[in-house]
Please model this.
Amino acid sequence: MEHPTKYYENLEEFENAFEIMKNFQKTHNIIRNDYLNLLEITIENKDNQRSFNTLYRACLRELFSLIESDLYNLNGLDKYEGYSDYDAFMDKFKKTLKQICSTWQKDKVQSDYFSKNLERLRNVKKLRDKITHPKDSEDFKNATKEDLKLIKEIFSNYSSLMQKIMDGFFIGTKNYSFKNL
Model:
C-alpha cells in the first residue's frame, strides 16, 4: 500500500524536515502527557471550587499550547501560502490543516473535523482568550463540570484528528545522488 509522501528537493531540506518531525513528536507528546496529568488532577479537585477553577483555567491554556505547538511544527513541514507566526489563531489553524491535509491526501479527515468541531473549538478559544487577556473579573467565572467536559471533548476530538493525520504521514527526497556521500 502506497502512502502519500511529501518529497523535498534536496537532502538538506529533507534533513530539516526530519528534525522538525522529531521535534513535533517529542513536543506534542510532552505537552499531551502534561495535559492528561493536568486533567486528572483537575478531576480529582472537582469538589473544591477554588482549586477546580484554577486547574480548569490551566487546562484551557494548556490545550491551546498543544495546538499552537503542533501548528508551528506542521508549518515547518509544509507552510501554507503567506504563512506567518503572527497570523490569528483560527486562520492559522484552518489554513495549516487545509495545507497539511491536502499535501498528505487527508482532505476528508480535515473536512469532517471542520464540520463537526471547528465552531466548538472557536468558542473554547474565546474562553481561553478571556482568561489569558482578562478585561475584568467577570472573565473568571466559576468553572463547572460541564465546562471541563467540553474541553475534554475538544481535546479528545483534536487528538483523534492528529492521529488520523499522522497515520501514513511520510516525508522523503527524490533524485538524491548517493555519490555525494
Observations:
- The chain is about 70% helix and 5% strand.
- Residues 11-44 form the longest helix (34 residues).
- The mean pLDDT is 93.
- The radius of gyration is 19 Å.
